[in-house]
Design goal:
With 78 residues, the protein is of the alpha+beta class. The chain contains 2 helices and 4 strands, in the order βααβββ. The longest helix is centred in the middle third of the chain and has 14 residues, at 27-40.
């Protein structure tokens, strides 16, 4: 696997990115997650949650455009 980079991921996007579980997300949030995957990892990915136990507030996450509680994650191309 090839390292793709560290991304700032909203905590609400962890379940769909890690488990494919979109339950609880509205249509817009689901579209945002899918757009992130499609534009960055069209052939798949794996993720290491480097900051899963240290969430923080960020005004510019890599998914969505609203200030959110986020974690850092290292992504790898499949």
């Amino acid at each position: 696997m090839c390292y793709a980079g560290r991304f700032i991921i909203p905590t609400w996007a962890i379940a769909p990115l890690c488990y494919g579980d979109y339950s609880g997300l509205n249509d817009l949030d689901s579209e945002l997650v899918n757009a992130f995957i499609d534009s960055n990892f069209p052939k798949g990915y794996s993720v290491e949650w480097t900051g899963i136990n240290e969430p923080y507030i960020c005004s510019h996450p890599d998914i969505g455009d609203m200030t959110s509680e986020v974690v850092d994650a290292d992504f790898f191309h499949a």
